[in-house]
């Protein structure tokens, strides 16, 4: 089981006198749970998502983001691991390294790339993740070896051509078919070119499929419900439930509206106001928000302060 732990996170827009947006966010998401993060427009939800992923538009000015892994999460790694391989400080890592460790942030609108099918795109994403993982967990070892070497230079053997566990076409097709079945998706979808002519709803479904393929520890889904008609909302919701139930993914489901929570039953609900998580509860909190809006949360938070 993996745990994403955010402690007292502060962030601002990465420019001189950039606006302070996150003001001490505390939030913990464990794999296998769905957390709904709600809040009015402008409260900092999307910024939190992007800071978790390592978006360069934001500068972190305080706090930490930790990812704790267990044996299960590193079962694919063929190297001797030490304690550090189970506890990562994400703020010290590049976006692609965070992704390789199991953080998924929907590539919300990957560009249309001429001549690249969905299939090729996903296969490439999967291979890139596998390569990066190998490097991350082996780098650690190489560094440790270098430290032990009292001559002060790295005597580890030169890297040969990556003995990459490239996923073959047949194996990939097999995984893809399984995931598409899990999500109830039409195989024809995959032959289409990346995002060319995809409807808004299809793009959202793609995002869930990407998350299913990459099997992240924690998937951050930002407003995946926006602009969906009811049928597509149900499809997407079914997919999100499957991420949790069938592959134990933790989901941080960012949403402005309660509507999707009729189909995706959250294990935890959090409210963000002015760059802080000011209230947490169970599914009943989302219902209360639907009935009463956010004003009472603001009053409660104000009284507590
Ligand atoms: P939410 O997703 O909850 O609607 P955001 O995280 O998108 O909120 O934005 C929070 C606040 O930060 C808003 O006032 C927004 O205008 C501001 N903001 C976010 N990103 C930037 C940016 N890159 N440059 C300037 N202001 C930004
Ligand atoms: Mg705080
Ligand atoms: Mg937003």
From TrEMBL:
Domain ABC transporter, residue spans: 4-299
Entry keywords, A to Z: ATP-binding, Nucleotide-binding
Bias (Acidic residues): 136-153
Renumbered residue ranges of the record's region Disordered: 136-165
One of the record's GO molecular function terms: ATP binding
Pfam families with a match to the protein in the record: ABC_tran
Matches recorded under CDD domains: ABC_FeS_Assembly
Protein name: FeS assembly ATPase SufC
Source organism of the structure: Halorubrum lacusprofundi (strain ATCC 49239 / DSM 5036 / JCM 8891 / ACAM 34)
